[in-house]
């Protein structure tokens, strides 16, 4: 069904990355899973001490939102979670989902029922065995409406999951079951070839039921954290740093080469780069002002990444209840200027919401098939603003405020937008900078009029990006609702004919950009500087930093 996924290598990349993280986000950002890649998805590092231990020094950018896998649904949480915990499957070096905590996977002939056999030697970092009940506990915790997990929608393909999460069903009706201690069974509502890929997302990691029941705050401190990944959380100085040690109880501990991983939390790209130069970090992004200077560095590494940087409108807050006014602001943005003179990371301008890298059943690139849905058009922007103001009876536009979470790169982008809105629309927009955790919380509460965001794919399918904007989605955060759009997403998920499904996906991208509750800026890539001697760090186009096979000489 999704055999067409082929992420394209950005061969023309010559420039390097200016830190920008979302969703952190995701992702980017803690503002969602969508935080920009730089400050999160790339990780960063230093030099090992004279102790003989292999210690990798990285930079997480900022404090993880949460190490509860159901809550930490963003880039600043994912990179860490993917290494101190592990799901039933894990992405390999070819970005394919393979057996991980599960050693065997059986699929029924109708494609609806998956039976996972958990490894006998799968253990938690405290020595407890990982059992099927830990997955049942974790997945029900994610879907519990009281948890308010932003990731819950990802599990809606499981029979009974959506009903429980939306308050219309019972936890007992979710089609997940521990047949015995080592057998976990899941039944889907319809066949889904992306299922094994989807459950590599940290939101589907297990939780030690015994530990979490005894202490609901188990995930908030290193002393109480219990994971099942290649590493264990050994120290956590909140808002300063955290540290991993090799997990001796991990089922595949023999494959893990590093002794420790130290993560700084430095949210300034220049400071991060200076730490890299002084061997305090092993990996770093590059400040935009040094992009030209370092573009030919032997230490430069370029990786694909599926996601984008964008801005949201609050469609319940004036003046953005009006579609023409939203579109006026979206068309007033020169995306080429943003990527060429502000971010300078060689990104591709985003003229639709679905990123490059998805190949359809016709063999054509999704983005190229759909074409440019939003472009820089000053005259049309002015016309739309005038018409929209007349429709609303405005003689003067209400005050406009652009909100963004604390980051040098976010600020630079906001300043560029502010300048363009003044130049094209004559609008004097104000800027509001907000601390990361507060920003995410308030954006979810619809407190911002226009706010920055990012999106990193949870799984390899265009619908993953598009489904974020259905009515009531925790990822929507715009208050926009459109029944035609909702129906399109439902039809996409139920359509088994690949050609018809592809047409529906294109229609959804077009409708989203026509209504414009959001306007895209650029698509992500991952460019990092990596010290000689560092090897084996996996960065997946759709996925998370994986240090299981990382090494350092």
TrEMBL record:
Return the Pfam families for the record: SBP_bac_5
Q: Which residues form the Solute-binding protein family domain?
A: 98-475
The places in or outside the cell where this protein is found are: Cell membrane
| Chain residue ranges for the region called Disordered | 24-52
Transmembrane stretches, by residue range?
A: none
PROSITE patterns according to UniProt: PROKAR_LIPOPROTEIN, SBP_BACTERIAL_5
The record's principal subcellular location, in a coarse class, is: membrane
Topology relative to the membrane, per the entry?
Lipid-anchor
Q: Where is the composition biased (Basic and acidic residues)?
A: 25-36
Going by the entry's taxonomy, the superkingdom of the source organism is recorded as Bacteria
Signal sequence coordinates: 1-18
Extract the PANTHER family matched here: DIPEPTIDE-BINDING PROTEIN DPPE (PTHR30290:SF79), PERIPLASMIC BINDING COMPONENT OF ABC TRANSPORTER (PTHR30290)
Family designation: Belongs to the bacterial solute-binding protein 5 family.
Q: What is the protein's given name?
A: Peptide ABC transporter substrate-binding protein
